[in-house]
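re: the backbone from monday

yeah here it is again, tokenized this time
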């Protein structure tokens, strides 16, 4: 228990009116017994006007229903209450009162209501109020900064789509889900045809612009929150789509290829067309026992190689069960382009 020095050594009222904390004391009838200087400043109500009034009548505006209910509970049952500023940001009509501010603005508040006992044994309550405006602003800044760092860590800075780091982490989770729940998972690898020649001829600024346009065209084809598109490196992109059957995947691969073709980005140094095109390799996992997690990626990469070898600007499907890392010409399905 706190010990007090003789009253001559200090002034309690000066302390109460100097601290950076609002203090209000109410008796069992919710009549105001203490109204310190901090409350005076932020309420605009002098203590001489507030003392002796019911707490609901002392302010310029009615306090929130939440704080009035909390006060009643504390006085009735002797239970302390902490009002979360996330749910009750401004329960009391307390305002930031700047000299040049035309409109009053309520301050964000942290409020604690504590039961106390008077000398005669009657129950009272102490309301402690602090200005949480600064801490809330700080939290917002930190949260925004944290979100920005998270975006930077998982997003490709040029195209705005996910980066390889994000894909690698989510691919493991998606493959684990596909194995446990026996659902399909399809991976597409997309490569811009003759992109080195494009950069050499048009310059890296134009090359960056083309990468952004291709990424945007691919992203527009995704319709579900579970679909993932990432830049895998250089001019290569990778897509991961759960719950997609092989026949649907074949149609989707052609949809991806056509979306890029329809951008009609000139590429006069391409060996197959006069515009930018892509080659696509893809494969599908579904109920394959004892398959290594990386096998699907290797299979899609092998399919991409076959699409390039067959002339580019086309898609190639390689079934996972037919994939063999030792085979140079795996048996797959080629979808030749008709857009030349």
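seq for it, each position gets an aa:
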């Amino acid at each position: 228990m706190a010990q007090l020095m003789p009253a001559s050594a200090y002034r309690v009222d000066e302390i109460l009116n100097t601290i950076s904390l609002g203090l209000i004391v109410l008796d069992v009838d919710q009549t105001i017994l203490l109204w310190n200087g901090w409350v005076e400043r932020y309420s605009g109500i002098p203590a001489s006007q507030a003392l002796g009034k019911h707490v609901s009548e002392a302010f310029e505006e009615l306090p929130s229903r939440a704080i009035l209910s909390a006060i009643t509970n504390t006085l009735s049952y002797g239970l302390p209450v902490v009002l979360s500023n996330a749910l009750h940001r401004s329960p009391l009509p307390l305002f930031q009162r700047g000299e040049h501010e035309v409109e009053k603005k309520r301050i964000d508040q942290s409020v604690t209501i504590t039961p106390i006992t008077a000398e005669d044994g009657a129950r009272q309550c102490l309301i402690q109020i602090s200005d949480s405006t600064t801490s809330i602003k700080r939290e917002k800044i930190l949260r925004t900064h944290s979100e920005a760092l998270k975006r930077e860590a998982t997003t490709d800075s040029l195209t705005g789509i996910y980066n390889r780091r994000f894909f690698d982490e989510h691919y493991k989770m998606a493959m684990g889900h596909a194995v446990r729940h026996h659902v399909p998972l399809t991976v597409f690898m997309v490569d811009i045809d003759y992109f080195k020649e494009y950069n050499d001829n048009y310059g890296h600024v134009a090359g960056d612009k083309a990468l952004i346009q291709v990424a945007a065209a691919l992203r527009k084809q995704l319709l579900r929150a579970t679909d993932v598109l990432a830049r895998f490196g250089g001019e290569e992109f990778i897509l991961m789509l759960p719950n997609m059957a092989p026949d649907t995947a074949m149609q989707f691969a052609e949809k991806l290829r056509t979306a890029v073709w329809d951008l009609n980005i000139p590429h006069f140094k391409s060996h197959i067309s006069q515009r930018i095109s892509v080659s696509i390799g893809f494969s599908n996992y579904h109920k394959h026992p004892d398959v290594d997690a990386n096998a699907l990626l290797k299979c899609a990469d092998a399919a991409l190689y076959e699409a390039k070898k067959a002339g580019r600007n086309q898609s190639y499907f390689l079934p996972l069960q037919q994939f063999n890392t030792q085979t140079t010409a795996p048996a797959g399905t080629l979808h030749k382009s008709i857009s030349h």
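Residues 27 and 124 are 4 Å apart (CA to CA). Residues 133-154 form the longest helix (22 residues).
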